[in-house]
Amino acid sequence: MKTKTLWQTGAAIVAASGFGAFFAVAFAEEPAPQPPEEVQAAEVAKALADPSIIPAGQRSFVKCQACHMVGENVQRRAGPPLNGVVGRAAGTNEGFRYSPGMAKVTAENLVWTVETLDAYLKAPRDVVPGTTMGFAGIPKPEERKAIIAYLASFASDGTRVEAAKAVE
Ligand code: HEC
């Protein structure tokens, strides 16, 4: 019987580690679903098809730096850190308080593919209505492409991917 099993499991956890731990387990939030690793890897590979544009992306990233960090030892600024953002589900940087607009697209399973990122960087509000990213957008397609390549060159832990090491 499911109810009984759950109760027994709960009771066992309480017995083993006290009420605090039991409630922490019972009410822990579900982590947001991420696309399969192959999908993420495919988007990163697509973004890095031409790694020679990474340095140009790095130069353009000064436009983002007031609000975003990449690399090791990142902190939240006005915006979330962007390590590993390419191929990841939108609005899922742990601990960052996103806008209701971003929460809505997260619930709709928006993934930051090369295409959706390109559209967001061109006109943030067109892709995420109500986003609090106070940024007008990057009109030039080549510049967006370079920024996306630069972002893709950072793994989720902030280390650089192999393709980046070759050009820097
Ligand atoms: C004035 C501050 C500001 C600037 C400048 C800015 N952003 Fe943002 N960005 C934000 C905020 C705030 C959010 C969260 C938006 C929300 O919750 O709606 C965000 C969200 C994002 C996201 C989604 C992150 C996620 O976890 O899903 C990406 C990608 C992004 N920004 C990229 C960029 C890039 C690239 C640039 C530069 C070209 C840039 N931003 C410039 C403030 C900024």
CATH classification, class level of the largest domain: Mainly Alpha
| CATH topology group of the largest domain | Cytochrome Bc1 Complex, Chain D, domain 2
Bound molecules: heme C
Please summarize the sheet with the most strands.
none
Structural class: mainly alpha
Instruction: Name the overall outline.
Output: globular
Please write the string of helix (H) and strand (E) elements.
HHHHHHHH
**Any idea what the CATH architecture of the largest domain is?**
Orthogonal Bundle
Radius of gyration: 19 Å
Fraction of residues in H or I helices: 40-55%
List the helices and strands and how they pair.
Layout: H1 2-27, H2 37-47, H3 54-60, H4 100-107, H5 114-122, H6 124-127, H7 141-152, H8 162-167
Helix pairs in contact: 2-7, 3-7, 5-7
Bound molecules: heme C.
Residues 63-64, 66-68, 78-80, 82, 85, 90-91, 93, 98-99, 101-102, 112, 117, 121, 128, 131-135, 138, 147 line the site of heme C (HEC).
How would you characterize the overall build of this protein?
The protein has 168 residues and is an all-alpha fold. It has two domains: 1-30; 37-167, Cytochrome Bc1 Complex, Chain D, domain 2, CATH 1.10.760. It is built from eight helices and no strands. Helix 2 crosses helix 7 and helix 5 crosses helix 7 (141-152). Heme C binds at residues 63-64, 66-68, 78-80, 82, 85, 90-91, 93, 98-99, 101-102, 112, 117, 121, 128, 131-135, 138, 147.
